[in-house]
Amino acid sequence: MKKILIVEDHADIRKLIRMTLEFDNYEIHEAADGVSGLKAAQDVKPDLVLMDVMMPGELDGLQVCQRIKADPEIKHIPVVLLTARGQVKDREAGMAAGTTAYLVKPFSPLQLIDTIEQLLATA
């Protein structure tokens, strides 16, 4: 069973993503901020991370992505950034942080599932 970590500060968005993925055979883990998201990635070692970019607290999604990609134990994990920021400079910042894919909110559940299936198929 593939493990997916959802790192998102809005509980309703976490719930929506979890409900979207419940129909597939995934083990879902959640974190509500960047610091707990990074710790969960290190502890759980998920097959994929779905992460919001803008989160309150010490670490935002870009910083967590950079730290995941800098950690030899978990750098292979694909990170999908989920954000309301769709400008070219925002995408470039995501790519510079090491993201594997970039989905702009609002995204469709189908788009999310397609992205996850493609990434897990190549992992």
Automatic annotation (TrEMBL):
Modification 4-aspartylphosphate occurs at: 52
Positions of the Response regulatory domain: 3-120
Name by which UniProt lists this protein: Response regulator
Pfam families (alphabetical): Response_reg (PF00072)
UniProt key word Phosphoprotein: yes
KW Phosphoprotein (keyword) present: yes
PANTHER family per record: RESPONSE REGULATORY DOMAIN-CONTAINING PROTEIN (PTHR44591:SF3), STRESS RESPONSE REGULATOR PROTEIN 1 (PTHR44591)
Keywords carried by this UniProt record: Phosphoprotein
Organism the protein comes from: Pseudaquabacterium inlustre
Database matches in SUPFAM superfamilies: CheY-like
Domain of life: Bacteria
InterPro entries per record: Bact_response_regulator, CheY-like_superfamily, Sig_transdc_resp-reg_receiver
